[in-house]
Every structure is written in structure tokens, then in C-alpha cells.
Design a protein that fits this description.
The structure holds two protein chains of two kinds. By secondary structure, chain A is α+β, with helices and mostly antiparallel strands. Chain A folds into two domains: 45 residues, no CATH class; 192 residues, no CATH class. Chain A has five helices and twelve strands. In chain A, strands 2-4-3-6-9 form a five-stranded mixed beta sheet, with no helix packed on it. In chain A, helix 4 packs antiparallel against helix 5. The longest helix of chain A is centred in the first third of the chain and has 25 residues. Chain B is mainly alpha-helical. In chain B, helix 2 packs across helix 3, helix 3 crosses helix 4 and helix 4 packs across helix 7. The chains are: A alpha+beta, B mainly alpha. The interface between A and B is large, with 43 and 50 residues.
Chain lengths: 274, 184
């Protein structure tokens, strides 16, 4: 190969690598770090000592005042569903756990989905990633409050679908059916793709540590008992009773599909928070 | 860079516009990891936190950024080698590992480009000397300046030139073995 041809080949390769590279975006943390520098630089040097003193007093005060304030406010009633517009998916969904032979759902299962996917977008990337809930995933997914996620569902038959989210503070939210997330109603029609939340919205984690879990329950028939248990949980105000209601609800979810007479199935997916 | 130091957030947007794809391409070709995007984010975070330490008299900004990127990649490879080995070619779908087809190309042209890109990647992966691998990737990603490559690698200009030349010879021979006798 002539040197000239080699150079052309390598230039072609390099140009391709750069053009096809993922386009990234700065994260919120980066902006915060830069802005913090601006605030720091705003004060003249001789004022730093005074600032340190004032900050120390504020810190000590906050140690006394904050716990009282937090105890008074009922944080458990704060909304834990965060919705916002997402980045457009330019290159389709990149599935993290594509189907493998012998690792799929049981063929005899009465509940089948043509698509049942947890989709997410990292804040800095224009790509959309997917975790197929019908197949095992070995990789641990970690999302920050800057990232987005949603569910994409396509039932193989008309199905009643219930989706719940358990956040890291032990609060359960119903994502579907829920008018805030989607105007769709049960039963979901076969061969139709539904997004929860519906386009163009995405959910995002509201907490910064721990783990969030998503429960998807699908049934051939309505599940009023499940609905009632959730309503009971969400109406309960006392912390102790709420925990008890949650425990009953989780036990019911756990039992879905175990009764041979119940034509229903469940899927669970957890991701870490950063 | 001065804007970044003084806390102007627009500065980081501009840095991303200029360097994100080049850094990604560099990190991906050096590590062949699907975590290259995270790695590049780490590079930018280090650039932000270390901005006050950047001295334009010592090196160009591009050199400084790529030196940080190279250090991040080397650290990443060390960590990865300690835990487990990731097979080369285990690529993610959105990484440059998958050839993006330009709509303006004919299918034949696209196929030829894809096969050339795959062949070059394979040949770079075959380079056993890590410094040669880094040198040749930097050479084509940063503008073919031996002095800059030397500064990024922490070597003299002549040493950088030797590394690039040696890598070029090996890649050229490898491409010939793969049937690329001329520019397709």
C-alpha cells in the first residue's frame, strides 16, 4: 500500500470515528460546579474570613432548626413522580439485554408482551437505552436525577396493566393507570405500543441515593383488589399504617400469578440512584 | 478557558461542541469500552475542577485536555484489567463500533467505508504496544502534530514520532494482509 493511500485510509477512519461518536452534553453537576466558582469569585478576598464565620453560624443553626422543620413537614406526602420532556431518540433504542436463546419468558405463560421495556436516557447522551423486562439483565443500571426513564409496552393480547414505582424512601406511586402519566385506559389494546409516561414525557428519579423499583402487573381481567390496596395505601396518612398498607400491597404484588386460577403475571426491575 | 475559570457556564457548552466527539473517538479506540461516554464525562469533569491549574504557557488547551483523557483511559484500563477482561470487539450499538451509514453514500460506498473502518480498528487493536496505539490514535484525532503527541504521552517529540511511525508501519502491513492494497 502506498503511503498516500494509507494516509487517506487512516484519515477516512478517523473522520468516521469522530462523526459517528456519541454526542454528549454537560451534566447538571458540571454547571453547578462552574457556577459555584462564579459565586466564590464574586466576593473580594478580604471578605472570605467573614463569610466563613457566617457560614459556620448558619451551619450550626441548621443543625438545630432543620430537624424540627423536617419533622413538621410530612415529606411522605410530597409528590415523588417527576415528569419532564425528554431528548429525542435519534438512533433508536439500544437494548442492554437482547434476547438470548433459552433465557426468554416461558412460552406457556398466559400473559405475553410483544414489548415490555424499561427505557432510559443518560443526561449527557442523545441515545435511548432499553432493558427488556422479559429477559434477565446482569448489568446494574444507575440513574441520576438528570437522567430520564419510561416504560414502553405492547401487549400481545388485550390486557389490564398496572405499573407501580417504589422509590428509595419507601413511597409507592402508581404510574399506570394514572392520568398524570398517561391518558390511556385499561385494558390496553393488543399490538399497540404505549409509553408510560406518554410521549413526549419521561420520568426522572427524584432521589439521589438508594434504589427505585418498578413493578409491572398484567392480567387478562381487571384487578380491583390490587387497585383497592393501592388506594388504601395512598389514602393512609399515619406513617405506621402507611407502612403496613405498603407491606400488604407488596405482598399482593408478590403473589400475582402464583394462584393457578389467576391469569396474571408480574415483572420487577430495579435501578440504582446516583 | 478563562470563561470557564471565571464561572461562565457557556464555556463548557463550547468545550463540548469542540471536543466531545474527538475525545469519545479517542477513548473508544484506546479502551474499546462501552463506557467510553462515561469516561469522557469524567474527563470533562476533571477539566472543570482542574481549570485553575491549566497554564497556557506550558501546553495548548487541546494538549492539556487530551492528556487528561489519556490518563483517564489508562486508569480505566488498569482498573478493568484488575477486575475482568473485556473481549475486544464486544461493542455497544451506539459506539463508533457500529458503522454509521451516511445517507449521501451509495450502498456500495457505504459498504466499502464500513469494511475499511472495521479493518483499521482491527489493526489498531492488534497493536500490542500501548504507547504506539495511543500515539497513532492521537496522531489522527488531534491534527498530526508530533510535539503535541509527545506532550500528551509525556515523551519527547522524536520519541512520539518514532511511536507513530512504528504504529503506522504495523497498521499498514496489517491492512495489506486484510486485502487493502490501495485506498478503496
Amino acid at each position: 500500500m502506498k503511503d498516500e493511500d494509507f494516509e487517506k485510509s487512516m484519515d477516512k477512519w478517523a473522520a468516521h470515528e469522530v462523526e459517528s461518536a456519541s454526542q454528549l452534553r454537560p451534566t447538571e453537576e458540571m454547571y453547578r460546579t462552574i457556577e459555584a466558582r462564579k459565586r466564590k469569585g464574586f466576593f473580594p478576598v478580604h471578605a472570605h474570613g467573614v463569610l466563613v464565620g457566617v457560614s459556620a453560624v448558619c451551619f450550626l443553626l441548621s443543625l438545630v432548626v432543620l430537624p424540627v422543620v423536617l419533622r413538621r413537614s410530612d415529606r411522605d406526602t410530597e409528590p415523588s413522580i417527576g415528569l419532564r420532556g425528554g431528548i429525542s431518540a435519534e438512533k433508536g433504542v439500544i437494548v442492554k439485554n437482547p434476547p438470548r436463546r433459552g433465557k426468554g419468558p416461558k412460552k406457556g405463560s398466559p400473559i405475553q408482551f410483544d414489548q415490555l421495556m424499561f427505557q432510559y436516557q443518560k443526561a449527557y447522551s442523545s441515545s435511548v437505552y432499553g432493558v427488556d423486562l422479559r429477559f434477565p439483565i446482569e448489568e446494574e443500571i444507575t440513574l441520576s436525577t438528570d437522567d430520564n426513564y419510561r416504560l414502553a409496552i405492547q401487549p400481545a393480547d388485550d390486557r389490564y396493566v398496572y405499573i407501580y414505582k417504589l422509590d428509595s424512601r419507601g413511597r409507592m406511586d402508581k404510574l399506570f393507570p394514572n392520568d398524570v402519566c398517561s391518558s390511556a385506559r385499561n385494558p390496553l389494546e393488543q399490538k399497540q405500543t404505549y409509553h408510560v409516561p406518554s410521549e413526549p414525557n419521561w420520568l426522572y428519579p427524584v432521589e439521589r441515593k438508594g434504589e427505585e423499583s418498578i413493578y409491572v402487573i398484567a392480567s387478562a381481567l381487571p384487578m380491583p383488589e390490587l387497585e383497592n390496596l393501592y388506594n388504601q395505601y395512598s389514602r393512609t396518612e399515619s406513617k405506621l399504617n402507611k407502612q403496613e398498607s405498603l407491606s400488604i400491597l407488596l405482598k399482593r404484588i408478590e403473589a400475582v400469578g402464583q394462584d393457578s386460577g389467576e391469569e396474571a403475571a408480574k415483572w420487577m426491575f430495579s435501578f440504582k440512584l446516583l | 478557558m478563562e470563561q470557564l475559570k471565571s464561572g461562565e457556564t457557556d464555556a463548557i457548552d463550547e468545550l463540548y461542541r469542540r471536543y466531545d466527539r474527538k475525545l469519545y473517538a479517542f477513548c473508544y479506540n484506546v479502551t474499546r469500552s462501552e463506557d467510553s461516554a462515561d469516561l469522557v464525562q469524567d474527563v470533562f469533569m476533571r477539566v472543570i475542577t482542574a481549570a485553575h491549574r491549566y497554564n497556557p504557557k506550558k501546553a495548548s488547551f487541546r494538549t492539556w485536555v487530551f492528556r487528561i483523557a489519556r490518563n483517564c483511559c489508562v486508569d480505566f484500563i488498569r482498573r478493568r484489567d484488575k477486575t475482568k477482561s473485556t473481549p475486544i470487539g464486544d461493542k455497544e450499538e451506539n459506539s463508533p463500533g457500529n458503522t454509521i451509514v451516511d445517507d449521501a453514500m451509495s450502498p456500495e460506498e457505504a459498504l466499502i467505508e464500513a469494511s475499511l473502518v472495521e479493518a483499521v480498528r482491527g489493526c489498531i487493536d492488534e497493536l500490542e504496544n500501548e504507547q504506539e496505539k495511543h500515539a497513532i490514535v492521537l496522531y489522527y484525532m488531534t491534527g498530526k502534530v508530533y510535539r503535541e503527541i509527545g506532550e500528551i504521552l509525556g515523551k519527547s517529540t522524536s520519541m512520539a514520532k518514532n511511536r507513530v511511525r512504528s504504529a503506522q508501519e504495523k497498521v499498514k502491513r496489517c491492512l495489506e494482509r486484510k486485502g487493502f492494497d490501495s485506498f478503496p
